[in-house]
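for ur thesis appendix - Glucose-6-phosphate isomerase. copy paste whatever u need, i formatted it the way the template wanted (i think)
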Amino acid sequence: MHELMNIDIGHLISDQDQAGFISRADFNNFAAKYGQGFEEFQAPLRDKKSPITLSLGEASAITGIKELAQKLREKYDNILLLGIGGSALGAKAVLQFLHGPFYNLEKHGNPRMFILDNLDPVLVTKALGVVDITRTALIYTSKSGSTPETAAQFIFYYNKYKEAGGRLEDIVIICDPGDNGINHIARQLGCHLLHIPRDLPGRYSVLSSVGFLPAEITGIDSARLLAGAAAAHQSIIDTPLEQNAIFALGTCLYELAMKGKSIHVLFNYSSLLFEFGLWFVQLWAESLGKKLSLDGQVVHAGTTPLASLGATDQHSILQLFKEGPADKVLGFVTINSLPIDVTLPEAFPAEKEYSYFTGHTMGEQLAIEQMATEMSLVGAGRPCYRLTLRDISPEVLGALLYFYEALVVYTAKLWHINPFDQPGVEEGKNITYALMGRQDYSQRRPDYEQAVAQFKQQGVRLKLS
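the 3d part is after this line
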């Protein structure tokens, strides 16, 4: 298996025109129906004018990121990375896929990495109990620089760090370039300042300093991540329409959405892919869940993403997938070559429930269970696709991340929506700014306070004693 990954869409298609699948005739007509639109999607990628291609230009920043990572590695035992949404999920996906879930417990000579992506005061406080703040570096990631949750975290940890005598010049701030508060603070502190490309939205920013710096600190070569993304990019723009994975999968998912498949499940068959699943959920939901089309029509576009973990979720949500509402399309992500496997020795030979394991491996069992689950779902009329990764490597992960970014952008074109904004998130932010007393939102505060009081009055509270 020389390619970085391959995609099997055969079980999204039915030769018998089975309800809930794409008919063979419809699939064969995709090129005539959607080919021009796909070429229009490819053009800005080919010309490096799409926002997602800004990541490919980050190669020039990698040398400086490597130098900064080396300095932090030499000075500190711990890193506290403060971020939320795209400022955290991508880094988490990279670290877990390439280091596994126990990185902070292993002995490897690199700093432990704690990524705090919530405002929960219990989380924020308890983090101080597991690190020596004097041996800890702070990375504050906020694309806009005004994200209220991460700003509050930074204020708290900055003061703790300063009180402990921390070196303020070693703080790292990652944000948009601009004349705003976060850039003013960085220059005031004289700390490290890394800029995200201005037109690269946060949820697409993993292949930039947002993901590259934590990767490099923990010993991952970010140039290899970017090389995988570049390979995926080249394949997407060069592969003919009839064999193009983005075209085939994206068009199938759109057509299935039109048939009522309103939930897109990504069933990841490795614990190394758990955080990738959460990254996918944000990318898919925030990019495709839109009320308005590009021409202002109310469309309520998008499908609901859901991440599941195999084999774990075979024992929780699989029952619903197979016998519940037929409103889902399921994508399986598997890894072809694992660096290690576990062969099971003979034990309890007299017991039929145990004796059959002898000589088999856990990797073999996981692969069989994945295929059995997929076959069972397809047999029950649930359309499925499968994406197989070559191995666990930075190149494969970089390709996987870029593939799903491109898939989202192409799918958005079919929906005729903007995949790079998130207007539905703004109202909650505005209410928060006003009620927390942000000066430039003070005029809105009375209206919001009145709305909050009215909202609470409408509640129906029930007690459990």
